[in-house]
Amino acid sequence: MFQNKTFRKLWKGFWEPILSLQIFQWVIAILMAIPIWFVYFTSIKKITNIDVFYKYRKKPAIFIFWHGRSMMLSPIICLGGMHAYAVASRHKDGRMMAKLQHLFGLRAIYGSSHKGGVSVLREGLRVLARGDHGICLSPDGPGGPSLRVQDGALYFAKMSGAPIIPVCYSCSKSWLQDRWDRYLVALPFSKITCNIGNPIFVPKKVTPQEFEDIRKNIEDFMVAQMRELDAEFGLKPAEQDLTSVEFKQKKREAAAAKKASKRKKI
Fold first, then answer.
1. 191 has which bridge partners?
2. With left for phi above 0 and alpha for psi between -120 and 50, is residue 218 left, alpha or beta?
3. 100: left (phi over 0), alpha (psi -120 to 50) or beta
4. Which end of the chain is more exposed for a tag (fewer CB within 10 A), N or C?
5. CA 230, CA 211: separation in Å to the nearest integer?
6. Is residue 182 part of a domain?
7. DSSP assignment string, 90-148
8. Domain with 171 in it
C-alpha cells in the first residue's frame, strides 16, 4: 500500500507540471477533439426544438447543460455557427477543457461559482451586453452537487435580461464514466438525440422566493429533460447531489474496505 501511494505521488509529481504547460494542453485538446468529431459524423442526429437554437445562437442568451452532458453539444454548437463564451474553471483541467472548447468556436471566461464568481459575473454581463454573443455554462459544475442548478445562470439572466435555455443530449451507444457527474461519453455509430428547451426569463424585480421558485422550476425541467432522453436509450438514471470531493472520498473508503476484507480472508 505504501509503495502504491509513493508511485501515485511520483507519477502525479511528474505529470502535473507537464499538463500545466499550454503546449501540452493544446495537444491534448486536439487529441480529444478528433474522436468527438468522429463520433458526430458517424452518428445519426436528432435535434428537437432547433428553432430556439437558431433564434438565439447569435444573440445574448445563457445556454445551460449538466456538467456530465457536454461532449456532443460542442460540434452541434460549432456547426450551428453559435457565437458564445463558455465559463471554465481556472484549474489546469478547466484550462485544458477551455482549449478544447476553443477548437469548437467557444471563447473562455475563467472562474466558477466557488472561485472568481464575481469576476465571472462581471465579464459575463459585459459579453451579454454586446448583443451578439451568448454564454454556455454548467449550473452544477465544476464540482457539484450533481443535477442541482446553482444561482449563477439566474443572476446572468436577471441582470442582463437574456433568457436561460436548457440543453441536453443522450445517445444509444455510450459509456457512463464512474465520476460524480456520470459524464456521458458518446460512442461512434450512435443515435444522438438532443433537446433544446424553451427560453426562460428571470425578471429584474423578483423576490427571493420567486427567484428560488424559478431556480427550482429550471432544475426540475432539466432533470426531467435528461431523464426523458436517457429513458429512450434505457440508460440508468444519474444520481443527484453527488459532489466531486464526496464521490472521491467514498471511492477511497470503498477501496480501503475491500483491501481490509481481503486481508481478513487471508
1. 44
2. alpha
3. alpha
4. C
5. 29
6. yes
7. SSHHHHHHHHHHHHTT-EEEE--SSSSHHHHHHHHHHHHHHSS-EEEE-TTTTT--TT-
8. 14-236
Count of domains forming the chain: 1
Please check whether residue 166 lies inside any domain of the structure.
Answer: yes
C-alpha grid cell for residue 244?
A: 466531486
Q: How far apart are CA 102 and CA 148, in angstroms?
A: 26
Query: What is the identity of the amino acid at 8?
Result: R
Contact between 110 and 122 under an 8 Å Cβ cutoff? The reply is: no
CATH number at residue 195: 3.40.1130.10
| pTM of the model as a whole | 0.89
The answer to whether residue 100 is domain-embedded is yes
Contact assessment for residue 165 and residue 197, using Cβ atoms and an 8 Å cutoff: yes
pLDDT in tens, the chain (266 residues): 444 555 456 545 656 666 677 888 899 999 999 999 999 999 999 999 999 999 999 999 999 999 999 999 999 999 999 999 998 877 767 788 889 999 999 999 987 655 557 888 999 999 999 999 999 999 998 889 999 999 999 999 999 999 999 999 999 999 999 999 999 999 999 999 999 999 999 999 999 999 999 999 999 999 999 999 999 999 999 899 999 999 999 988 888 888 887 777 76
Contact 64, 139 (CB under 8 A): yes
